[in-house]
Amino acid sequence: MENSKIKYQGIIPAFYACYDGEGNVSAERVEALAAYFVEKGVKGLYVGGSSGECIYQDVEERKLTLEHVMKVAAGKVTVIAHVACNNTRDSRALAAHAESLGVDAIAAIPPIYFRLPEYAIAQYWNDISAAAPNTDFVIYNIPQLAGVALTVPLFREMKKNPRVRAVKNSSVPVTDIQTFRMEGGEGFVVFNGPDEQLISGLAMGADGGIGGTYGVMPELYKKIMESFQAGDMETAMAVQDEATSIIYAMGGCHGNLYAVMKEILKIRTGIDIGTVRRPMPCLAPEDMPQVEKCAAMIDAAIKKYC
Fold first, then answer.
1. Catalytic annotation, residues
2. I need a labelling partner for 59 at 20 to 30 A (CA). Which of 23, 200, 218, 296 fits?
3. Mind giving me the DSSP string for 56-98?
4. pLDDT band at 1, cuts 50/70/90?
């Protein structure tokens, strides 16, 4: 089992939602973005999560996106499909579809809005997993958005499911990574979620990182991980500082962060994947000087360290 961890150990960008000029999911743009990430040499792709604007897309749109990611990336990078919807039936449909395409793993946040007891959350996750019985299952812990945290008792209950292979931990306390690694035992995978804490998560034993800002600067996150693995903590910390400064600068815009990052991606690579879906705010015209500044910051950091 330990050797099978290799496919999860590395930098895994969270895949962005790709729209055409009318706001519809664009298969062509999905494939262009997937090809870009493959060319950049990332370890894998996390499809259909927060960066994929999953809560604003219907089941068929999410299926379409995954199909075209797999068309380009299958067999070249690890693919984890986030399949959670706010009801079990749609989540199971996405899970079965993902397994039929041959993804490496499926993932799910807990149900949101209604505060469910832990036994109901476990049932929800196990029902989803049962719809993809031959595929690894990743628990997505993001309490600041989901409204519920993965507790140790809930985690122990989920570990009874042999398909539960990993936790994507996006909670702020980095010690949660240590907790899930220790509770998970040998062969269990823990991903660092907060991009600003990648080096801290790795120090706590994370196997890799899944992040929303990885997509606009994969080179920097790859450098952080490579430096950490080589024992070059000075460089790892310096590049982490650069990446974090860029994140804060992107957060200084008026538009939604994903709208900002999509524009930066367009400036830096020429890849146009559209804007964000309402009700998220699109890029504001007054954001452009800051967006261009962020793109330049990324270019300068890559030139300096990569």
1. 140, 168
2. 218
3. GS-HHHHHHHHHHHHHHHTTTSEEEEE---SSHHHHHHHHHHH
4. very low
Report how far residue 174's alpha carbon sits from residue 96's, in angstroms, rounded to the nearest whole number.
33
Q: Give per-residue pLDDT as tens, 16-43.
A: 999 999 999 999 999 999 999 999 999 9
Model confidence pLDDT, tens digit, residues 53-96: 999 999 999 999 999 999 999 999 999 999 999 999 999 999 99
CA–CA distance, 272 with 26 (Å, rounded to integer): 11
**CB-based contact 12:206 (threshold 8 Å):** no
pTM: 0.97
Residue 259: count of CB within 10 angstroms of its CB: 22
Residue recorded with tokens 């797999």: 70
Q: Looking at the DSSP assignment, which residues form a beta bridge with residue 71?
A: none
**Average pLDDT along the chain:** 96
Confidence at 206, pLDDT banded by 50, 70, 90: very high
Inter-residue contact 244 to 79 (CB < 8 Å): no
Sheet containing 11-13: order of strands: 11-13, 208-211, 189-192, 164-169, 136-141, 105-108, 78-82, 44-47
Main-chain phi, psi angles of 24, to 5 degrees: -90, 150
Rounded to whole angstroms, how far apart are CA atoms 6 and 56?
33
Contact between 37 and 14 (Cβ < 8 Å) = no
- Identify whether the C-beta of residue 9 lies closer than 8 Å to the C-beta of residue 3: no
Cα dihedral 215, 216, 221, 223 sign: positive
Query: What residue spans of the chain are helical by DSSP H?
Result: 27-40, 59-73, 88-101, 118-130, 143-146, 152-158, 175-184, 198-203, 218-229, 233-250, 257-269, 288-305
**Tokens representing 222?**
């790859």
Residue 2: pLDDT over 60: no
| Dihedral pair phi/psi, residue 25, rounded to 5° | -60, 130
Amino acid found at 32: A
Instruction: Name the residue among 43, 29, 9 with its Cα closest to residue 214.
Output: 43
